[in-house]
Amino acid sequence: METPTYEKKEDYAANVIPVTEGSDSEKGQAYTGEQEVFGGGAGEVQFQTLGWIKAAVFFLKMTFAAGVLSIPAALLQLGAVPGALIIVFWSSLNTYMAFLQGQFKLRHNSVHTVTDAAYIACMQLSNGRERLSAIIREITNVIYILTWVICAGVSSFGLSIAFNAVTHHGACSVVFGFVAYFIVATVASIRTIEKLGWISWLGFLSIASAIFTVTIAVALRDRPAAAPATGDFDLGFSAWPVETATFSSAFAAALAIFSSSANTSGYVPVISEMKRPQDYFKSVSVCMLWIVCSYLAIGLTVFYYCGQWTTSPSLGSAGPTIKIIAYGIAIPGLTAGAMICVHVGAKSCFVRILRGSPHLTSNSKTHWATWLGCTYGIGAAGWILSEAVPFFGSLVSLVGAVGFAPIGVVLPAVLWFCMHPGARNGSRKMKAAYALHMLILVLGIFTCVAGTYAVVQSIVDQYKNGQVGGAFQCADNSGTVTE
């Protein structure tokens, strides 16, 4: 069934029932007349089979992925103290944004992605202007799909780096990138998140083991692996930003940290596949607690021992031997991370195409053709992007500015206004909450606009300084052949 449309804002009132405190739904109001996208279990393919523990692991693998590998390098620009504060700030804010999106989803059964949420919010705030709401929905959908394409590109790029490192650049990097794309898209074609559970577990354990291997290894060395082998050297560790830091470089670094936990818009579709959607908040809490603790431990440890000699991705920071070992361990994790990005993006396209059709939950030829077209299509777009923009850190920052800022910060703030329509003229507490969410809204817009400028400028500077090669090049992208 399509997202319900309303001619006027008042039409919402006719479909509202009160929700009592302590019920399974969130406090506030729930709108009736909206059907779950997967029909509450009807159809040949059962999607609503996911428990909260598997959901938490899925969120963990979605979040604790390629982004964490850029954090030590980001701290080099920001310094240890501001960097740690930024990690805590963004992780906390992104957790709250995830909660807001979950609350809105539980009040509107028809929401599958933030695209649906944007449409409903615009209808409510614009007095039922259907045409405007439809335009907002399409804009949000473009941003949402682009976001997961970039995420797929980042993860696929990381996987191609791993292949290069493990094989000592055994083939052209473009070939490795294509191999990574094919593997990822194939695994991502498993249709339900519940059946991806074991892959998520394996992927999480893999990437966590690889990162902690490098973290321990750098702490055991007398000097960073990339530093001069003999004589004095400048470690470059600093509690505060480096003197050479510019607005573009510092903001791009802050965006990399933001991006590493800002993919909360990808959590929303998972609710539609949970057996008990109310457990979503439990899954998010477990995920984000791990994220903030591990990011602080890993980022600060690697930065403390490697300083300016850290690499991006950080798996190469402990020297050639550990790099090969770490990337070998990380391959399942990088594969699972890229798989999740492709799966989430493809599921959104798939539902958009077949929503309201019996093919959505059947095993028909149309169902399979559409699904495989979406997975391999999203994967291919991500691979092409990773070849066109061949620098890992900038890709991570780019997804934060272009994608996660508007749909992961701006939109959730707007959803809060929808869920609390009388806050502006309410009690002092509600007025304070209203002002706080206005600040969050402004922060999201600033992050999007200024962040995009900073990332683009950073990319231009990297090309000018010869720090990266051109697009679609066969050269080693792991730095292995020069070691």
Walk me through this protein's architecture.
This protein is mainly α. The protein has a single domain, classed as Amino acid/polyamine transporter I, CATH 1.20.1740. It has 15 helices and two strands. It has a two-stranded antiparallel sheet. Helix 2 packs across helix 8, helix 6 runs antiparallel to helix 14 and helix 9 crosses helix 15. The longest helix has 38 residues. The termini are far apart. The relative contact order is 0.18. The N terminus is likely disordered.
Strand order of the largest sheet: 1-2
Strand segment count? 2
Instruction: Write the CATH fold name.
Output: Amino acid/polyamine transporter I
Please give the share of residues in helix.
55-70%
